[in-house]
# Entry
Amino acid sequence: MVTELNRYGQLAYFYYKDTLVGVVAFNINPDFVWWGYMVKAVEEVFVLSMSDDYAGFGRVAAQFLKDLCKENQCDLVFAGAFLGSNNSYKKVKGYSEEYPTYVCLRKDCDAVE
# Structure
């Protein structure tokens, strides 16, 4: 799966001072079904922090997904389905906790910390 994501450009690599600090795997789904509606969505596949020396990569990833939503004219970001209460989606403005996952509607992607 990771090889396929990489082949199709669906892995974003983040570096800090020449060190790989994290990877975000994503999918842009033009036919995402959300609450009975067909929408275009950015789906988070996974977020992987790669460096113990770099704190806060989750916030970088959450912001990246919001930016990806805006750049691709998606309707929403679907992310963080398996996270507990202490996570980056609570720290980056724009993500809603109204649903069983963390969702950021495009209209809320401009919200900043």
In short: The radius of gyration is 14 Å.
